[in-house]
Structure to design on (389 residues):
């Protein structure tokens, strides 16, 4: 099976590692990136004869068209704003396509390609990382296994293993994507209907096992992707919140209220720059901190099994840095689900032409099985709704 990977950054590195070391039947992997150093580092790190690299711009159709046509599956690990055009290239090349997503408008454009993808016999799957991605797959799986659902709550966070100033946070993925999640409206289901609420709102406290203890969670955008639309009418209450150490939400809310997320250019002594561009630059600089990261995920459903038996079922993941392969927790938990979906498409285990909601085509129990094979510890426990989790 031949794979085309776009982007040789952190998540791209994890995807490449998985496709070459965990996937069965990988015959070649071609990686495209505009940075020669990133490609060279990837080659040196993986040292696999099946790995090929190509320096170039993913918007270059002359470069991309033959690469797309030669691949069984193309995976985008570049910034979200390229994904709709890349999906269109994949349709032309009759190549399955998936991405790490993170933006509702871009995902909507990918769904506009449904008829063309169906005619081409290929599958487009947006938002295949951690959240959006794995969280939605697990959430749907939990809800789909109950006769009736009262609520579905998804909580996910990528954190430093040990909190550090100035924001008890370290950069573990694209700052542009992070800001996007913090400022765009969050889609929820309330009273059985789709609604939006402001991000950085509805702050709550939740507890994880030691050493984490009490943490905070708040509304952010894009973490559920298509899940609210898929479950509207079936689940009366659904939301997604980002987990952080206490105090982080208030700190970022201040930056937002001061206008530092504004994309409008401002004139300065050294030329023009938007406040958001400056904020991205400073966060990349100041929050690129040493130390390991951890990913926390908790998906909890409350409802009824057959016979009106009330139940609360929870999936919990606490994933850490992989020292053996030097892969961070965020790389693992974002890159591995995407690589797994790519493998299921390439092998034909998933056969669903068109643009598809991942929660409808990726079995949750199969995803859990394959993640456990990669050393991801996944707890599943249940109890009565009135008992503490």
């Amino acid at each position: 099976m031949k794979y085309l990977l776009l982007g040789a950054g952190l998540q791209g590195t994890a995807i490449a590692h998985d496709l070459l070391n965990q996937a069965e039947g990988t015959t070649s992997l071609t990686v495209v990136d505009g940075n020669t150093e990133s490609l060279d580092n990837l080659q040196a790190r993986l040292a696999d004869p099946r790995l090929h690299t190509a320096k170039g711009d993913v918007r270059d159709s002359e470069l991309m068209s033959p690469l797309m046509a030669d691949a069984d599956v193309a995976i985008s690990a570049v910034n979200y704003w390229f994904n709709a055009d890349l999906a269109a290239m994949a349709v032309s090349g009759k190549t399955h396509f998936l991405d790490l997503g993170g933006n509702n408008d871009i995902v909507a454009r990918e769904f506009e390609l449904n008829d063309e993808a169906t005619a081409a016999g290929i599958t487009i799957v947006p938002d295949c990382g951690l959240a959006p991605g794995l969280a939605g797959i697990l959430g749907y799986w939990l809800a789909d296994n109950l006769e009736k659902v009262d609520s579905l709550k998804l909580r996910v966070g990528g954190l430093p293993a040990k909190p550090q100033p100035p924001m008890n946070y370290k950069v573990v993925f694209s700052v542009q994507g992070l800001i996007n999640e913090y400022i765009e409206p969050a889609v929820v289901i309330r009273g059985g209907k789709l609604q939006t609420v402001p991000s950085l709102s509805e702050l709550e406290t939740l507890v994880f096992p030691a050493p984490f203890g009490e943490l905070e969670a708040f509304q952010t955008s894009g973490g559920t992707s298509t899940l609210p639309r898929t479950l509207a009418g079936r689940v009366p209450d659904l939301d997604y919140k980002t987990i952080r150490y206490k105090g982080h939400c208030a700190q970022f809310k201040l930056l937002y209220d001061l206008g530092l997320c504004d994309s409008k250019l401002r004139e300065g002594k050294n030329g023009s720059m938007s406040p958001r561009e400056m904020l991205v630059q400073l966060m990349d600089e100041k929050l690129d901190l040493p130390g390991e990261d951890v990913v926390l995920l908790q998906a909890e459903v409350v409802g009824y099994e057959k016979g009106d038996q009330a139940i609360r079922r929870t999936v919990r993941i606490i994933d850490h840095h992989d020292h053996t392969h030097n892969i961070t927790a965020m790389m693992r938990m974002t890159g591995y689900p995407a690589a797994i979906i790519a493998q299921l498409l390439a092998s034909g285990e998933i056969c669903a032409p068109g643009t598809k909601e991942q929660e409808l085509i990726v079995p949750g129990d199969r995803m859990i099985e394959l993640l456990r094979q990669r050393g991801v510890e996944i707890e599943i426990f249940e109890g009565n709704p009135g008992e503490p989790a």
Q: What stands out?
A: The mean pLDDT is 94. Residues 329-347 form the longest helix (19 residues).
